[in-house]
Specification:
By secondary structure, this protein is mainly α.
């Protein structure tokens, strides 16, 4: 259990950093004289770098040693946090957030790989992943409160100080309790594939965020679109030709794995957009201070914390189907309350929407992670877990980019906040419905059989981790 606790601490500091930052956005915006797009970049600079490097770090850890990469990630993330607290301007803050992200990219997929190789029984692994998901809920619960207290009493810079003592404790425990491990057959580096991934995610995110200001048909945005398309085509053509690619496209022959990837992107896009809109609404429109805005969102965070371990137990005993269906219905219904019934204008409806979203998001994380690694050869656990983590971070990046751009475009057209966010809430509703549909389609018996065939194709000589019922 000490290994699980250490891995969860690493997730806590990475997740806590994002939830604390969301509450601090209005204060940072005023202090740094930033625009909506500037606030988007304080979040997306982090998630973009994180998403771009997760697969590289997962395969690197499998090759050179998981504990070694994990320790380096803790050191770099803590150092980046200290630099963020000292940032003299928005531009420097964004740069230092990218430093944090490099460290974060060394933590999440490596921690999940350690968990996968420690808990080999499917039911035990599902419960462990449920605890892992609950830590995300704890960060959602504690983040707004901690951020609110720190922002109102000390200032927004203090939100980055929280990571320092937690990071040092995690580092000491890692050096003492986690043994070194690596894959039996190390994979070679794939620099071309890594550059293509970075070009794809970077051009796509930059284009979405800057389009409202530059114009969708401007040369800059059209150039970003061309780079994104060319990078995607390059990945599809180049990666299958490599013996050991960065992204093994054969993973996606597994319907549960492909479904988990789509669900991760849509669920985390919905969550990131949900937090972004509500943080700005509660403080800029309702006029709440950071602490009271955090308290308003506490029901959502508490439900996530409560239902994440329940979701893990359900996955272990009954499979991922039921948690995914519950997640899709709850998240879709929450978005619909804002999109169709203007939940922000009624406090009871607002809290109902928060409760529904927290329930849904608490249910979705365990089946995503467990499905991604179930049935895959353990020799590639780091890569499989990294793709799942990359999907989450890509979703979060796109969620803030798309929702923020919709908001910025609506405000630029002269709409009030409620009018400007209407289309964004329909996007979040669609994310929930997509979780429901894809979850139902990718969790049946036929889907599981494709996962078993994929595992045999990936590593015929190795016994794969058994798929869950």
């Amino acid at each position: 259990m000490i290994v699980l606790a250490i891995c969860c601490i690493s997730l806590l500091i990475v997740s806590l950093d994002n939830t604390v930052l969301n509450v601090a956005l209005p204060s940072m915006r005023r202090d740094l004289d930033a625009s909506v797009s500037g606030m988007q970049w304080t979040i997306d600079a982090y998630t973009l770098v994180l998403a771009s490097l997760l697969m590289l770090m997962g395969s690197t850890a499998d090759r050179i040693g998981r504990r070694r990469v994990f320790v380096a990630g803790l050191v770099l993330f803590s150092a980046g946090s200290l630099l963020c607290s000292l940032a003299p301007s928005l531009d420097w803050l964004i740069v230092f957030r990218m430093v944090q992200a490099v460290g974060g990219a060394m933590l999440n997929p490596v921690a999940m790989s350690i968990i996968t190789n420690t808990f080999t029984d499917p039911a035990e692994r599902a419960r462990a992943i449920g605890v892992w998901g609950a830590v995300g809920g704890i960060s959602m619960a504690a983040g707004p409160l901690i951020g609110g207290v720190l922002v109102d009493s000390v200032g927004w810079r203090s939100i980055f100080w929280v990571n320092l003592p937690v990071g040092l404790v995690a580092l000491a425990l890692t050096l003492r309790h986690i043994p070194e491990s690596r894959a039996a057959r190390p994979r070679r580096a794939d620099p071309v594939g890594q550059l293509l991934v970075m070009a794809l995610l970077g051009s796509l995110t930059y284009g979405i965020i800057e389009a409202p200001a530059a114009g969708w048909h401007s040369p800059l945005i059209m150039g970003c679109a061309l780079v994104a398309v060319a990078s995607l085509v390059g990945l599809l053509v180049y990666e299958p030709r490599r013996e050991e690619p960065l992204i093994d496209l054969r993973f996606f022959r597994s319907v549960p794995f492909s479904g988990a990837t789509v669900i991760a992107i849509t669920a985390f896009a919905g969550m990131a957009g949900f937090l972004f809109l509500n943080t700005l609404y509660l403080q800029d429109v309702r006029g709440l201070d950071a602490l009271h805005a955090g308290l308003y969102m506490l029901p959502m965070a508490a439900l996530t914390m409560l239902f994440a371990p329940l979701s893990g137990r359900l996955v272990g005993s009954r499979g991922p189907r039921l948690p995914l269906l519950i997640a899709g219905v709850a998240m879709g219904a929450s978005g619909l309350l804002f999109a169709a019934f203007e939940a922000e204008t009624s406090t009871p409806l607002l809290f109902t929407a928060y409760v529904l979203f927290g329930l849904g998001f608490g249910m979705v994380n365990a089946p995503i992670t467990n499905t991604a690694v179930s049935g895959m050869p353990r020799s590639q656990a780091g890569v499989a877990a990294a793709i799942a983590s990359t999907s989450r971070q890509t979703g979060g990046t796109l969620g803030v980019a798309i929702v923020g751009s919709v908001l910025a475009a609506g405000l630029a057209d002269g709409s009030d906040f409620a009018g400007a966010t209407g289309p964004a809430w329909w996007i979040i509703t669609a994310c929930g419905l997509l979780v429901l549909v894809v979850g139902a389609a990718s969790s049946g018996r036929w889907a599981r059989s494709t996962a078993e065939r994929t595992a045999r194709a990936l590593d015929p000589a190795a016994a794969p981790a058994p798929a869950d019922a």
